[in-house]
Design a protein that fits this description.
It is a single chain. Helices cover about 40% and strands about 15% of the residues. The chain contains 16 helices and 14 strands. Helix 8 (about 225-235) runs parallel beside helix 11. The longest helix has 18 residues, at about 395-410. The radius of gyration is 22 Å and the shape is globular. The two termini are about 15 Å apart. The model has no long low-confidence stretch (mean pLDDT about 90).
Length: about 450
């Protein structure tokens, strides 16, 4: 059986969409003839918010977890001075000092194996001195893991694969100015000079990466839903007291959240809907949503619940009680959320495909260049393929959709979702494809 060393920074119990991808590699790949060895960091999850990302680990020693599925090594995590200041004094103090320290590590980590993330490299190197593996895969971000994989590949003569969940250089939020973009572009080419192949989540990301890495071998390993978690969620009935729509995860600046809230508010004010319950799980802008409701959408004041981040399995079970899911258009980005929604089998409401205000938001805030040769409505395409929901054109269309769905809920006590053909989007099937790539490495 071939052995695969997995370098993954985000990994459960840390609550992160990015951590689910390597977690499912660990969960399923041994069933397809590859033994996984995961090297990650310790996550204490003491805060339940963004501070968990910089909080100390739970032990000064490496924690080893062995199971029938594989092995996980959790390395100690020691926050740098910037992070310690933030944890102790909060966000309002020592801002300049913290930015300088963070900036130093952000750049220096590409030159030397230093900083809070370097524990993964140190332990991986120690492990490989005593153990043989057949391949290394590093999943980013953080993209400094590609530097670690490249170094280890050269030292121990092991082929390695770079896994991109998102782009590195092309994302404007990571490469906001010319210097930063040039710096990242240089090191991306440097680290991936000797990479065996690159796997990523869509053809759109491939085209983005090819702008800086034109001569590499690319493979698509889609995101998907966890079949074990979805099986437990499948036994949960929709609640039947009030028409309930849920959303989970990050709300980006190009997402028309205020437009959606306004439509719901207007329907309540006009008495076209008597009640509608909106649930937001682990969103990044809860204060903004609460302020908007208090100032502009008062009819929603007792109709909205906002919950903190929670572990994926618990999140899925909570969301399964809802009648429908809200999804915002990410255009050329397919994302991870839609697969979770598919797996729970609730009607998906995608906002919007052709709304002028939403288009204006996209023009101001969307992070990536799109291509004429690629679809700019990947989520809508998937909804049409699977018949899992409705792609809402604009605000007027949303009004009609919500009225129709509410009528269905009032008649039947639930919202039907007659999706088809979603089995191929199980993460287990995608892991099978990854295992075949590892098996055929030369």
């Amino acid at each position: 059986m071939k052995k695969l060393l997995i370098l993954a920074y985000d990994f459960p119990p840390y609550v992160s969409v990015g951590g689910l991808r390597p977690y499912n590699w660990h969960q399923y790949i041994k069933e397809f003839g590859v033994e996984p060895i995961v090297i990650t960091r310790q996550w204490a999850n003491t805060h339940g918010n963004h501070l968990d990302y910089i909080s100390p680990g739970i032990s000064p020693l490496v924690i080893e977890e062995k199971s029938d599925r594989g092995t996980i090594f959790r390395t100690p995590y020691h926050p740098n001075l910037s992070n310690r200041l933030l944890l102790k004094y909060g966000d309002s103090r020592f801002k300049v000092i913290r930015k300088l320290i963070s900036g130093y590590y952000e750049f220096a980590q590409f030159l030397f194996p230093i900083g809070p993330k370097s524990g993964l490299y140190d332990y991986a190197r120690k492990y490989l001195k005593e153990n043989k593996v057949d391949a290394i895969i590093a999943t980013g971000d953080p993209f400094v893991l590609f530097s670690y994989a490249s170094k280890l590949s050269k030292e121990f003569d092991i082929p390695w694969i770079a896994d991109y969940r998102d782009t590195w250089v092309q994302d404007k939020t990571r490469s906001g100015n010319r210097f930063t973009k040039g710096w990242n572009s240089f090191f991306e080419r440097k680290f991936l000079r000797d990479v065996h192949s690159i796997c990523t989540v869509s053809n759109f990301i491939v085209k983005q990466l090819q702008q800086n890495l034109p001569d590499k071998k690319y493979e698509i390993v889609l995101n998907g839903f966890n079949p074990d978690v979805m099986q437990s969620a499948g036994a949960i009935e929709q609640q039947n007291e009030v028409f309930t729509i849920s959303f989970a995860g990050t709300i980006y600046k190009w997402h028309p959240i205020m437009s959606f809230l306004k439509v719901c508010n207007d329907l309540l004010e006009s008495k076209q809907l008597k009640r509608i319950h909106l649930r937001f799980y682990g969103v990044n802008n809860s204060v903004e949503i609460k302020d908007a409701i208090q100032k502009n959408f008062t009819a929603l004041s007792d109709q909205v619940s906002i919950f903190p981040k929670t572990a994926n399995e618990e999140l899925v079970k909570n969301m399964a009680e809802s009648n429908a899911f809200l999804l915002f258009n990410d255009y050329s980005i397919l994302g991870t959320k839609i697969f979770t929604y598919l797996g729970i089998r609730r009607k998906i409401i995608l906002c919007y495909t052709d709304d002028q205000d939403a288009i204006n938001l996209k023009n101001r805030h969307y992070n990536l260049q799109e291509f004429e040769s690629e679809s700019k409505q990947l989520q809508a395409d998937l909804l049409q393929e699977t018949e899992a929901g409705v792609a809402v054109k604009d605000k007027a269309h949303l009004t009609r959709v919500l009225i129709d769905l509410n009528d269905e809920f009032m008649r039947t006590g639930k919202i039907a979702c007659e999706s088809t053909g979603i089995e191929k989007y199980s993460r287990k099937m995608q892991v099978k494809h990854l295992a075949s790539l590892i098996e055929n490495l030369k």
